[in-house]
Design goal:
The chain has about 260 residues and is of the alpha/beta class. It contains 10 helices and 7 strands.
């Protein structure tokens, strides 16, 4: 898929999930906006049919639901049920309900371990399948993330690709104020990963990551630090803690009609 087509897809996906959030009067908008291009690229331009994708930062579920709708895995009627009574399109991904969502996530810190399990299983069985996992950066406060990282590096599970949505915000403030993560690149390197870093909103960067990894001859696994902006694309929300929780007002939602391709 060409970059321009990916940008058009991302805009459509974004407008769909912003409508979902507005209609549900729900928050976590900034979290979906920061990982939009990562999830779009991996799901629409990298994964093969039997590969696995785990959105460990499950609070960005609306982004994932919208991408799955773009792939035809969810109907518009199902999308309209977001947050409603009886719906399985809840604030966090459900388990065994939707094609393309293998695990319930949202209790942070578990997704990378699940990805490691898929990677080890595929390795033992000699299957050439990939597993992709997107974690938040605040989620790196969880010890289970680093246990999974050690395991993936020790087992040399280069069939697992780990993306970190590095927007520098978490539920109660800046990641560097709550529990400092930097120098994150060096820490991940020390854990035994090949580390790539760049603009997580740039499809050209994500395409270069894909080319590097699929042509790699290294036996080390890859982690990709995606520098992103929480609330990206909505000027009144960008790089703020409030976009983690607050829903859109009607005035703000009307402004989203002016959104164009980045």
């Amino acid at each position: 898929m060409k970059i321009q087509e990916l940008k058009q897809k991302a805009l459509k996906i974004k407008k769909r999930f912003l409508a979902m959030y507005y209609n549900a009067n729900a928050g976590h908008i900034g979290s979906s906006l920061s990982c939009l291009e990562i999830v779009t690229f991996v799901k629409l331009n990298w994964m093969k049919v039997h590969d696995k994708f785990i959105l460990s930062k499950g609070h960005a579920a609306a982004c994932l639901y919208s991408v799955l709708a773009e792939k035809g895995f969810l109907s518009e009627a199902e999308i309209d049920s977001f947050y409603k009574n009886g719906s399985y399109l809840a604030a966090h991904p459900p388990v065994n309900k939707i094609n393309g969502i293998p695990f319930a996530t949202g209790s942070l810190g578990h997704g990378l371990s699940l990805a490691a399990g898929f990677g080890l299983s595929n390795s033992i069985q000699g299957k050439s399948l990939m597993t992709f996992c997107v974690t938040s950066d605040g989620e790196l406060n969880e010890g289970s993330i680093w246990e999974a990282a050690m395991f993936i590096a020790h087992k040399k599970l280069n069939n697992v690709v780990w993306f970190i949505d590095r927007n520098r915000w978490q539920g109660f403030g800046s990641t560097e104020d709550v529990i400092k993560l930097d120098p994150l690149y060096d820490k991940l390197k020390a854990f035994g990963f090949n580390v790539l870093e760049g603009n997580g909103h740039d499809f050209n960067f994500l395409d270069s990551v894909k080319n590097i990894i699929i042509n790699s001859t290294y036996d080390k696994p890859y982690v990709v630090i995606c520098n992103t902006i929480k609330g990206n694309g909505l000027k009144f929300f960008e790089d703020t803690l409030s976009c983690h929780y607050l829903p859109l007002t009607i005035e703000q939602y009307e402004m989203t009609n002016l959104l164009n391709e980045n």
